[in-house]
Give the backbone structure.
Amino acid sequence: MILIYGIKERLNPIKAELSDVIHQTMSEVLGLPEDKRAHRFIPMNAEDFYAPGGRSASYTVIEINLMQGREVTTKKALIKTLFTNINAKLGIAPIDIEITLHEQPPHCWGFRGMTGDEARDLNYKVKV
C-alpha cells in the first residue's frame, strides 16, 4: 500500500500519471506485477500541509508500506529511481519529494483471508 500526500491543487491533476510512474518504478526495481497497484492519494488543503523550508507547492510525500525482506541496496535503488523518474516524467524536483519506506514482518500483513507469512502464491519476490 502506498500513500501519496500533497496540496490538492497540485496533486489532483497529476494523480494518474504519478501513480503510473510510481508503479512502473516499483515494477522495475522490485519486480511487482501490473496488478499489484495499491495507491491511496490524500490531497490536502495548503493550510493543512506544512512542508520543510525550501520546498515549493509541489512538495509531495510518498509513504511505501512493504513486507520485510528486501536488501538495503534494493530499497536505496527504489528511492533513488523514484526521485529520478518522478522528476523526469512530472518535473517535480527531488527537493520537493519525500519518500519513506515502512517495513513490517510478513505476519503483520493481512490479505485474501490470511497473513503474509501464510501466503504461498505471491507472483513476485519479497527477498530482492
Notes: The mean pLDDT is 95.
